[in-house]
C-alpha cells in the first residue's frame, strides 16, 4: 500500500498556493489596467489630433520609406497607457483605424492572459489524465503482460478527469457568458449580416440576417464563421463537452471499480469485463479525442482547419501521459515500492517515449509541410503568427520533444536506466506543455504573449494539484493487483 507522506503533501500544497497566487495576480493585473474600447478609441483620436497639429504624423507619412507611418502615435500611446507594441505592429499600421485596433487588441490580450494561462494548464493536465486512461485501456485490449503490475498508476492518473473536466466546463460556460474571449466565434455579432442602425454604438446592438428597414451592413460579419455555425454554436458546443467528459469519467470509474472487484473475487469475470469496456472505450476515445481537439483547441483559430490536427494533438497528450506514468513509476521505485518492476519495464517505458516522440514529430512535420506546400491563405495564417512571434518556443519544443529522446534514450542500455528515463520524461513533459502553449496562445492573446510568473506559476499550481489528486488516489488502494491473470508474466518480464 502506497503511503502519501506529509512531506509530499506539503510540496503539493506549496505548489498549489503558488498557482493560486499566480492566477490571482493575473486577474488582478488584468482588471487594474483595463480600458474600455470606447475609452481607447477616444483617447487615441485625441493623441492623433494633438500630434497632427504638431505635424509629427504628417512627417511620418512623408518619410514612410524610412520611418513607420504612425510611430510617433504609437509611442504616445505607449506613454499614455503604459503598454508596449512590437515593431511589426507599428510597421503594419496603415491608418488610424489600424492603430485603434492594435491598441484595443493589446488590452484585450492583457485581459485574456489569465484566462488563457488557466486554460493551457488545465487542458494540458486534463488531456494527460485522458491519455493515461487510453494507455490503461490499450493494456487490456492488447492483453499486455509486462504492465500488469503497473495498472494502478494509470488508474490513479485518470482520477484527475472529474477535476479537470469541471474546470474545463467552467471555462467554456464563462466564455459563453462573455467573461473572456478564448473562443471569439461565440460573439454573435460575427454571424449576422445586418445590424439595426439605431442600435449601433449601444451596449446591446441588435442583429439580423434579413435585409429589412432600418438595418445596415454589419462590419463585424464573418462569412467563414457564419458558415460553421451548424457545428460551432454554444448549445451544441457545451453538450458535446458534457458528453466527452461524462463518457471519459464513467469509463475511468468503471475500470477502477472492476479492477478492485477482480482483487476481491478473482477469476476472469472482471478481467473480461475490463477487456470489453476498454475495446468500446477505444472507439469512443478515437472519436472524442479528435472532436475534442477540434472543439477546444482548433476552434480558437476559427478560420483555420487541419485534417491532421486530431492525431497531432492526441500524439502530444498521449506521449505526455506516458511520461507521467513513467515518472510516477520511477518515483515509486525509488521510494521502495513495486519490487517486481525492473530494468526491463524501464526499457518498455523508454520505447514508448521514443516511439511516440518520433510519431509526434512526424505529425508535426506532415501537418506543416502539407500546408506550406499548398500555400492556401486560409491555412498558412495559422503558421504565420507562430513562426513570426513564437519561433523560439517552437524550436525549444522540437528540441525537447524530438532531439532529447533521440539523443538520450535511443540506445538500448539508456532505456534501462531509471535516472535516464526519468530525466527524459520530465523534459518531454515540459516540451509538450510548450507545444500546447503554442497551440493556444496565438489565437487568444496574439503577439502579446508572456511566459512569466502568471503562466509558469499557474503551471506549477497544476503540477501540485494534479500530483495531489493522483497520489491520493494511489494511496487509497493496494499498489499490486492480486488476481490479474498476467501478474506472473509481469513479474518475470524480460527483454
Labels describing this entry:
elongated, 3-stranded antiparallel β-sheet, mainly alpha, 3 strands
- What is the H/E string? HHHHHHHHEEEHHHHHHHHHHH
Cα shape: elongated
Q: Summarize the amount of helix as a percent range.
A: over 70%
Average pLDDT number: 92
Strand runs, count: 3
Number of domains: 3
Walkthrough of the structure:
The chain folds into 3 domains: 6-33 and 113-183 and 230-491, no CATH class; 37-101, no CATH class; 188-225, no CATH class. With 495 residues, the chain is mainly α. It has a 3-stranded antiparallel beta sheet with strand order 2-1-3, with no helix packed on it. The mean pLDDT is 92. The protein has helices at 6-32, 37-53, 56-62, 71-81, 87-92, 96-141, 152-157, 161-176, 223-226, 234-265, 269-296, 309-334, 343-374, 377-389, 391-408, 412-415, 418-444, 453-475, 487-491; strands spanning 194-196, 207-208, 215-217. The radius of gyration is 26 Å and the shape is elongated. The protein starts with 5 loop residues before the first helix and ends with a helix.
